[in-house]
Amino acid sequence: MSGNISTRRDFIKAVGLGAAALAVTEAYSAELDSLLSVDPEPRFDLSPYLYMQFMEPLGTTDGSVAAAWDFGRDCWRQDVVDVTKKLSPTLIRWGGCFISYYRWKEAVGPRDQRKPMLNMCWGGIETNQVGTHEFVDFCRRTGAEPLMCVNFESDGRKHWQRDPKGSIRSAGPEEAAEWVEYCNDPDSQLRRSHGVAEPYNIRMWQIGNETSYDRNAFDCETAAKKTITFAKAMRSRDPNIKLIGWGDSGWARKMLDIAGEHLQYIAFHHMFNPDRNVPNSPLRGIEYRKDPAYTWERLMNAAQYHEAKIKRVREEVEDYPVPLAMTECHFSLPGRNRCDVLSTWAAGVADARLLNVHERHGDKLKIATLADFCGTRWQVNAIMIPVPGGKSFMMPVALVMNLYRHHAGEKAVTINKAPSDLDVTASRTGDRVYLHVVNTQRNRSVTTRLAVQGMKIMSGRIFEMAGDPEYEVIQTDPHRVVPVEKSLSVDDRWTFPAASVSAVELDVQNV
């Protein structure tokens, strides 16, 4: 197979992905008499925060923040701003492991007076040229709401409480409270002294990051009690902020039992390998190129694996009104996030299935992501930043998040019936019904008739993304797979191409 890669890519480049997909599928028969039926009765609100991203300075490991910042002009790279605006994340989180040794005051004020820090988790020196002001500016430029993660006494990790040169890196509730004041108090003297008169009005704050992942960090009871202390201190500066507590690894129930009255969300993460226990899995290295059909099968299985994690967490908190916040989530495959399969369109189709899982749990899951946002080398990124030059572009996971983000309703509705090969979710805003449709067949199209119970379809538009599953965004033209708008036929039938992800908009009225 590997010897045919260049030939296949030359063919795709010559004739276009649409023709390549047609050549693959034309020998297969479609399901001509199938029905895709929707019950339009609203079930629950779908949160716009299901399409969040998070930004973390990853040091020498992956040039994320450093690559996105133009140090010569002291501003964000315009190509990064432009592609992020197109992606349109509703929420961007400033945080990650580095927050456990981050002292926010070192990254505010005049840049020539900012104090660099050792990036103890990811390596190298963090210059702190990007701090609170710059991050909020990026959010404002791209239309996202900011979410700050605070230094939670280094999450109890002693190895991050002091750096190798003796600098104290742990920070307590008072420092977190001062950060809230700096950001949200109209009269903050420190912020005003930095030339920023208007408050940033940051409403979302997370206390603790992956605290349960280290047996040498806080235990759950200690973390919960400290969460209360942090929450009280932070709310003393702004009572209107919304707080996210840590609840992964079986912590959620106990965290809410002790600190639940202070929290608006409970957080967990899911960085996963669905084939962790599968011998000879193709989801590693370049093994995926040897057997595309088996690779497709294993990628399609990821949705089941991912949903099992979400179900476990929600079962812990089913009796509590506090919603879930999955503030980090992505494939984590052998090769330290470098598995090239994540650059393929096959992975994009798998990511669309994961987004459908998020929607199905949208009654409880209110904040979620599927990527590490931006960087220069990790395949788990939503946006890839070429260095030293070139324009940033979306990875497959971002392509499907972008599609869903721009074509989704406010209320979840029910799929009554759908062809077995289609993974479908539905939502509604007013008299418009939205469908997110994934054709899970690698080489077979599916034809179906669309119907909305008790309503007549007046018109319909389909925003379709389809391509060869083996197409690799990084290896070829990164802009080849794009949504193509088409009109629904008068008989309400539609053929969803093989390996496609589609967003359908149906304008309906009562009959």
Question: SSE layout and pairings?
Answer:
Layout: H1 5-15, H2 17-25, E1 34-45, E2 53-55, H3 65-68, E3 69-70, E4 75-76, H4 78-87, E5 91-94, E6 117-118, E7 125-126, H5 132-142, E8 145-150, H6 173-184, H7 189-193, E9 204-207, H8 220-235, E10 242-246, H9 252-259, E11 265-272, H10 292-300, H11 302-316, E12 324-331, H12 345-360, E13 365-368, E14 374-375, E15 383-384, E16 393-394, H13 396-406, E17 411-417, E18 422-429, E19 432-439, E20 446-452, E21 455-466, E22 484-487, E23 493-496, E24 500-510
Parallel strand pairs: 1-20, 2-5, 5-8, 8-9, 9-10, 10-11, 11-12, 12-13, 14-15
Antiparallel strand pairs: 1-17, 3-4, 6-7, 15-16, 17-18, 18-19, 19-24, 20-23, 21-22, 21-24
Gyration radius from CA atoms, angstroms: 23 Å
Named at the architecture level, the CATH assignment of the largest domain is Alpha-Beta Barrel
Low-confidence stretches: 1-32
The main sheet orders its strands as 22-21-24-19-18-17-1-20-23
CATH class of the largest domain: Alpha Beta
Strand residues, percent: 25-35%
Tally of domains = 2
Enumerate how many helices there are, as a single number.
13
- Sheet having the most strands: 9 strands, mixed
Quote the CATH topology of the largest domain.
TIM Barrel
| Ends apart, CA distance between termini | 54 Å
The chain-level structural class is alpha/beta
